[in-house]
């Protein structure tokens, strides 16, 4: 065995046999990532499709109500194409998606892309505001807590972040509504009513509480990570060296510590962004905010499959994107280190 | 009045236990003071106090550090910050962790300087030139990880001297470097001090290094300066028993000798007894030594020692360093070697780092593999043990060829060859007790039950001269030397025929190194074969029977230890020998 191996090595020449080419080229890697994304979305939609079939009742029954005769239900099912085989229904939907047509809402008869379009702007606005606030706030709180470790500020932060992380988004949201929307102060509307055709930023008041709910959850989680990563960096030898060089605290914190502390925090930040997009569904429902989260919940109760599929597809794609971003930032960093 | 005066410097932990006691010394511009001592002697703590700095958990409680008449310890925060870097500079032990990985070299150099950008830039290029580094823009734009260890240390030196400080503190700056790089850095330090009329404090555990670079030396033990004087005089006529013991522990590349370690263990912070702090380990201690702490006695002007017998000891001859070591083991022609290596070649991704290495190791033989960092010696030992899988050639253990990867070797082959890593701080599982650690291979290879394993662990710990009660301790409670003994005991538990030692003493103090070398010598006498990878030729001379010298992956010299080290033929071996430092009593 060994003799064979060494023989083979010799004949190939030591230089070539002992070295390995880097096989992955940049276009190859991108192609691989896109293929993975498509495969993942395919699996997600397949799962959702068959999961909705397992739900009791269908759209025809929901539309016609309890009193409908079986004949009418059957007629509507035929009209909507629900009496065809599962595979054929699925294929019909999938081929539509592949040609850029998300189909028509079974409940309202409107094109799904149109329904989705309005709601997407609202949800994107909500998530964007939340993420834009989460990142700098987490950084600020994390750095302050690390710099003043074990101070009153740090201990208060650790305690309150533990409580906030333990509570679900809808509990935090409900508390906020009770505090600022209804019982105590009447500063902000407890329900975010945004008429269709209106852009969400025309109603900044309506955005405050949903954004705050998302921000509290994100900041309390992310700033803990940033705090720990800063504490590690502040105990490092290069920060000690910077002190011994006679540098000021601001320079040490911002020039020496920040870039190193951010390295582990950046992938975590994109994961938090992904969670925030996922968290939108709950928060939108809580505040009656007209976004894709509300759309998803309505379509599930209507058994409106094309809409369910489209919303899930969007959320999964966004989630995948941010996870991918986290991976790329992480491997990018470790690759650099090597 | 001296330019730098340190008076009664005392540093204590938060709970009040002192870690540096009443340190007093003077230093003139251009002079280098060597501070020598084992780990935990307080030498780093004392030298950091020159910058008015104490590490987390410690506090400077008393004393003065006067530099040109200004007391560094009395400065306010703002003045102290200006003082650091500009008046007193610091060179760290490990520049790989002390240079900021995220910042370019140019940025890290520029931030210690004040003034307009053009002057700063000119000064940076000047100091880089002075430490023998390129000073072009491409170099300034590099990040620390793009430099070699020697280059990183030069950058750290350049950073220290750039603002023209009055005093530079160098904290073991060459400990991680190989001899060649060390020699260059030491010469550089001496030249920088002389050229800039800069005083330096050079901290090291190695008297050979101190002897090379320092004008004066302060020997520290248990937080106290126990002897101080001109380097030549302290080395030639040591007055404190601890200094004598340290000198006896330093190996020589010129002659094979038995190394003498210091019995016992350095005192911990909590250990307090009324007498001399060294008395429990001292060969010369009398009853008097255990009752009253001796004060510093001046023997001749400038040379003093903290010992009751300081006046009589220098007259005694130094412990005979040339006590006969084991005889050199020669291979008899008919023997089947334990380990037979032919045409070993190995490489990584796109680079071959080892070319056609061949050697034999017979029973009881220690083969030393010598070379600088990057010469391929670690790749070689990792290929032998099967951790590096991409190699060609033949390796036979007891006549049977080995598969490249450890995973594809049979259990008996894996058991027969054992490996000891350089860093005992990383090679022991921090969550397993010493006993569990040593017992693991016993259970794995011999399926010993708990009771039998415990008995065997006790035997093994005794073999490596560790007290049996350490079996229940965790690695964190052990000193570096004790951890390395545990690693050796764990390897011995497998009953190996060949032991591969990868720089096993280079992370240890010289006095601890002596003890480990003597332990390994005992194992060789028991018939073990050993591949001893090192860059330290002095250890090679003390221990090895034969040597191969690696340079850039090629064997440039191969022969008996005495032949190779006494009459080196290859220029590379000659250069390595020339860079190896000696504690010369004649010096």
From TrEMBL, chain A:
Q: Which PROSITE patterns match?
A: ABC_TM1
Superkingdom of origin organism = Bacteria
Kindly report the protein's main subcellular placement as a broad class: membrane
Give any single GO term for biological process: transmembrane transport
Q: Where in the cell is it found?
A: Cell membrane
Q: Which Pfam families match?
A: BPD_transp_1, BPD_transp_1_N
Q: Which InterPro entries match?
A: BPD_transp_1_N, MetI-like, MetI-like_sf
- The residue ranges of the ABC transmembrane type-1 domain are 120-326
Q: Does the keyword Iron-sulfur apply?
A: no
Membrane topology, as annotated: Multi-pass membrane protein
Q: Which UniProt keywords apply?
A: Cell membrane, Membrane, Transmembrane, Transmembrane helix, Transport
Q: Which residues cross the membrane?
A: 30-51, 126-146, 167-189, 201-222, 261-287, 307-329
For region Disordered, the annotated ranges are 1-20
Entry GO CC: plasma membrane
The family this protein is said to belong to: Belongs to the binding-protein-dependent transport system permease family.
> What protein name is recorded for this chain?
Peptide ABC transporter permease
TrEMBL record, chain B:
Which Gene Ontology molecular-function terms are recorded?
ATP binding; ATP hydrolysis activity
Under SUPFAM superfamilies, the record lists: P-loop containing nucleoside triphosphate hydrolases
Its record classes its membrane topology as: Peripheral membrane protein
Q: Which residues form the ABC transporter domain?
A: 4-247, 339-577
Give the record's keywords alphabetically.
ATP-binding, Cell membrane, Membrane, Nucleotide-binding, Transport
InterPro entries tied to this protein: AAA+_ATPase, ABC_Ni/Peptide_Import, ABC_transporter-like_ATP-bd, ABC_transporter-like_CS, Oligopep_ABC_C, P-loop_NTPase
Name one process (GO BP) from the record: peptide transport
Give the location in the cell: Cell membrane
Where are the residues of the annotated region Disordered? 313-334
Q: Which GO terms describe its cellular component?
A: plasma membrane
Q: Which Pfam families match?
A: ABC_tran (PF00005), oligo_HPY (PF08352)
What family does the Swiss-Prot or TrEMBL record give for this protein? Belongs to the ABC transporter superfamily.
The protein, known as: ABC transporter ATP-binding protein
Q: What is the lineage of its organism?
A: Bacteria, Bacillati, Actinomycetota, Actinomycetes, Streptosporangiales
């Amino acid at each position: 065995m060994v003799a064979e191996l060494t023989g083979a090595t010799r004949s190939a020449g030591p230089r070539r046999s002992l070295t390995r080419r880097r096989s992955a080229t940049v276009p190859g890697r991108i192609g691989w990532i896109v293929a993975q994304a498509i495969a993942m979305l395919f699996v997600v939609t397949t799962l959702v499709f068959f999961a909705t079939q397992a739900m009791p009742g269908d759209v025809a029954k929901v539309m016609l109500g309890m009193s409908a005769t079986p004949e009418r239900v059957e007629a509507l099912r035929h009209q909507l194409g629900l009496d065809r085989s599962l595979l054929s229904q699925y294929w019909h939907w999938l081929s539509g998606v592949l040609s850029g047509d998300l189909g028509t809402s079974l409940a309202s008869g409107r094109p799904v892309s149109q329904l989705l379009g309005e709601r997407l702007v609202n949800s994107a606005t909500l998530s964007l505001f939340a993420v834009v606030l989460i990142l700098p706030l987490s950084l600020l709180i994390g750095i302050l807590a690390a710099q003043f470790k074990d101070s009153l500020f740090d201990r208060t932060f650790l305690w309150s972040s533990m409580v906030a992380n333990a509570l679900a988004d809808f509990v935090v949201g409900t508390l906020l509504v009770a505090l600022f929307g209804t019982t105590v102060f009447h500063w902000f509307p407890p329900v975010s009513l945004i008429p269709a055709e209106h852009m969400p930023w025309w109603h900044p008041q309506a955005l405050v509480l949903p954004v705050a709910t998302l921000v509290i959850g994100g900041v309390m989680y992310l700033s803990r990570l940033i705090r720990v990563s800063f504490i590690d960096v502040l105990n490092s030898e290069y920060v000690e060296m910077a002190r011994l060089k006679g540098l000021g605290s601001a320079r040490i914190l911002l020039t020496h510590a920040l870039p190193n502390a951010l390295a582990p925090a950046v992938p975590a930040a994109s994961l938090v962004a992904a969670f925030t997009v996922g968290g939108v569904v709950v928060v939108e429902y809580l505040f009656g905010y007209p976004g894709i989260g509300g759309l998803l919940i309505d379509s599930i109760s209507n058994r409106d499959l094309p809409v369910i599929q489209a919303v899930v597809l969007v959320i999964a794609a966004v989630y995948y994107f941010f996870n991918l971003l986290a991976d790329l930032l992480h491997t990018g960093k470790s690759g650099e280190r090597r | 009045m001296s330019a730098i005066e340190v008076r009664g410097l005392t540093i204590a932990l938060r709970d009040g236990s002192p870690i540096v006691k009443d340190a007093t010394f003077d230093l003139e511009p251009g002079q280098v003071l060597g501070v020598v001592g084992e780990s935990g002697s307080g030498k780093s703590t004392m030298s950091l106090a020159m910058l008015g700095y104490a590490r987390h958990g410690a506090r400077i409680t008393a004393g003065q550090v006067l530099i040109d008449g200004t007391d560094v310890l009395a400065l306010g925060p703002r003045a102290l910050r200006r003082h650091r870097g500009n008046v007193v500079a610091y060179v760290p032990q490990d520049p790989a962790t002390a240079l900021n990985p995220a910042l370019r070299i140019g940025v890290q150099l520029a931030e210690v300087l004040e003034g307009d950008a053009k002057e700063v830039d000119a000064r940076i290029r000047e100091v880089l030139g002075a430490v023998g580094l390129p000073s072009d823009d491409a170099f300034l734009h590099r990040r620390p990880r793009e430099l070699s260890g020697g280059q990183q240390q030069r950058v750290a030196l350049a950073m220290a001297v750039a603002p023209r400080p009055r005093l530079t503190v160098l904290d073991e700056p060459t400990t991680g470097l190989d001899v060649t790089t060390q020699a260059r850095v030491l010469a550089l330090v001496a030249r920088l001090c002389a050229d800039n009329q800069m005083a330096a404090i050079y901290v090291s555990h190695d008297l050979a290094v101190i002897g090379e670079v320092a004008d004066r030396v302060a020997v520290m033990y248990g937080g106290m300066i126990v002897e101080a004087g001109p380097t030549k005089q302290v080395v030639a006529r040591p007055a404190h028993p601890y200094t004598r013991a340290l000198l006896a522990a330093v190996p020589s590349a010129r002659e094979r000798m038995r190394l003498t370690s210091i019995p016992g263990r350095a005192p911990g912070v909590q250990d307090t007894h009324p007498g001399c702090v060294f008395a429990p380990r001292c060969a010369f201690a009398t009853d008097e030594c255990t009752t009253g702490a001796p004060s510093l006695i001046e023997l001749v002007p400038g040379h003093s020692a903290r010992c009751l017998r300081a006046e009589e000891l220098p007259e005694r001859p130094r412990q005979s360093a040339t006590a006969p070591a084991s005889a050199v083991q020669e291979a008899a022609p008919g023997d089947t070697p334990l380990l037979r290596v032919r045409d070993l070649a190995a490489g990584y991704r796109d680079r071959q780092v080892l070319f056609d290495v061949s050697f034999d190791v017979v029973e009881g033989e220690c083969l030393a593999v010598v070379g600088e960092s990057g010469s391929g010696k670690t790749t070689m030992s990792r290929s032998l043990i099967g951790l590096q899988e991409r190699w060609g050639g033949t390796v036979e253990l007891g006549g049977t060829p080995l598969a490249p990867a450890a995973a594809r070797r049979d259990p008996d082959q894996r058991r027969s060859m054992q490996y000891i890593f350089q860093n005992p701080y990383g090679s022991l599982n921090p969550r397993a007790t010493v006993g569990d650690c040593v017992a693991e291979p016993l259970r794995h290879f011999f399926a010993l039950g708990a009771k039998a394993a415990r008995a065997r662990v006790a035997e093994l710990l005794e073999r490596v001269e560790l007290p049996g009660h350490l079996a229940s301790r965790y690695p964190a409670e052990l000193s570096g030397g004790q951890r390395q003994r545990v690693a050796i005991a764990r390897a011995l538990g497998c009953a190996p025929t060949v032991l591969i030692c990868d720089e096993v003493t280079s992370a240890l103090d010289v006095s601890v190194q002596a003890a480990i070398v003597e332990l390994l010598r005992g194992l060789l006498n028991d018939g073990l074969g050993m591949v001893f990878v090192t860059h330290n030729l002095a250890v090679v001379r003390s221990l090895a029977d034969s040597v191969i010298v690696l340079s850039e992956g090629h064997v440039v010299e191969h022969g008996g230890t005495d032949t190779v080290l006494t009459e080196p033929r290859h220029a590379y071996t000659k250069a390595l020998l020339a860079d190896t430092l000696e504690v010369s009593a004649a010096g």
